[in-house]
Write a structure and sequence with these properties.
Oligomer: single chain
CATH architecture of the largest domain: Orthogonal Bundle
Keywords: Cell membrane, Membrane, Transmembrane, Transmembrane helix, Transport
Radius of gyration: 28 Å
Largest sheet: 2 strands, antiparallel
Distance between the termini: 60 Å
Membrane topology: Multi-pass membrane protein
Order of helices and strands: HEEHHHHHHHHHHHH
Main location: membrane
Domain ABC transmembrane type-1: 86-297
CATH superfamily of the largest domain: MetI-like
Family: Belongs to the binding-protein-dependent transport system permease family.
Length: 306
């Protein structure tokens, strides 16, 4: 009797005839993505590459660009006003954390505890976001005016006036207060959605055990959204590090360069001094720092998903 072992034949390898059909199948999907990819490359990555190239050039759109090596970066590191703008930016970021970061969290927690009129409170908190910036800046110029409502109230109770727009000690804080009032609503809605997603059974069990409102917030609400708080913290650091619009529109970097942030200094180099090479070098340095913050953000996001 023949005991020869029969080895089963391997399935035939995929023929090349299947490949065109797969390419056509997935290719139709890439065609739908092509417009978005083209826009992404043209308006995001191409400007980044051009900015890196310009940072090593003396940019002249009339006579043509010439390579200068690291001269633009040397100018950045030797310009004392840029050092001051970095300090102002860090101060601005710190004020945004101290004054503005906790406001949407507090409002979200407070609104979540309200049993009635919760929808109306959401709308009221978000309304400042829809105010056009031109109207916003004009409104707060009037509020901060020496004869505006704040100083009128201070004089009425016997206190001295505060020169919000001309006193270097108050100018940056004044801008942060204005921006916090205008933009906290959008972050508040994000926090509120996270708070409302916490299981109600936890709160009911805590109430049965006799936990008050502060105990529920401390031991249930805040621990449940701590991952979101960390993510929003990184996002705010990235956003505030690029801030310049209110500093430019309200005070143009004054008084005495007290609100001259790093982003505004880039704008000044590019569009006032027309020195696009140094402005590009400053932009590249900011890009490196923000990339590090973005990597931290992604890692925090991945840890939150686990």
């Amino acid at each position: 009797m023949d005991h020869t072992t029969v080895v089963p034949a391997r399935p035939p390898a995929a023929t090349n005839s299947r490949r065109p059909s797969r390419i056509r199948k997935h290719g139709s999907g890439y065609l739908f993505l092509l417009p978005a990819i083209v826009i992404f490359v043209l308006f995001l990555w191409l400007p980044i590459v051009k900015g890196v190239i310009f940072s090593f050039q003396d940019v002249d759109f009339v006579k043509g660009n010439s390579w200068v090596g690291f001269d633009n970066y040397k100018t950045v590191f030797h310009d004392s006003t840029i050092g001051q703008s970095i300090k102002n930016t860090l101060y601005y970021m710190a004020l945004c954390l101290i004054i503005g970061f906790w406001v949407p969290i507090l409002f979200a927690v407070a609104i979540s505890e309200v049993r009635r009129l919760q929808g109306a409170l959401r709308v009221m908190a978000y309304l400042p976001n829809v105010i056009p910036l031109v109207v916003l800046y004009g409104l707060w110029r009037w509020i901060y005016d020496p004869v505006g409502p704040i100083n009128a109230a201070l004089q009425w109770i016997g206190l001295d006036q505060i020169m919000f727009m001309t006193d270097p000690k108050w100018s940056m804080a004044s801008l942060v207060i204005m921006e916090t009032w205008q933009s906290f609503g959008s972050a508040m809605l994000i926090y509120l959605a996270a708070v409302l997603s916490v299981p109600k059974d936890w709160y009911e069990a805590a109430e049965i055990d006799g936990a008050g409102i502060w105990a529920r917030i401390r031991h249930i609400t805040l621990p449940s959204i701590k991952g979101l708080i960390g993510l929003m913290l990184i996002m705010q650091l990235i956003a505030t590090s690029q801030g310049y619009q209110s500093q430019l529109a309200m005070l143009d970097g004054g008084p005495v360069n007290a609100t001259m942030t790093y982003g505004l200094k880039i704008v000044k180099y590019a569009f006032t001094q027309l020195n696009y090479g140094v402005a590009s070098a400053m932009g590249v340095l900011m890009f490196i720092v923000l990339s590090v913050l973005a990597i931290i953000q992604f890692r925090l996001n991945n840890q939150g998903d686990r």
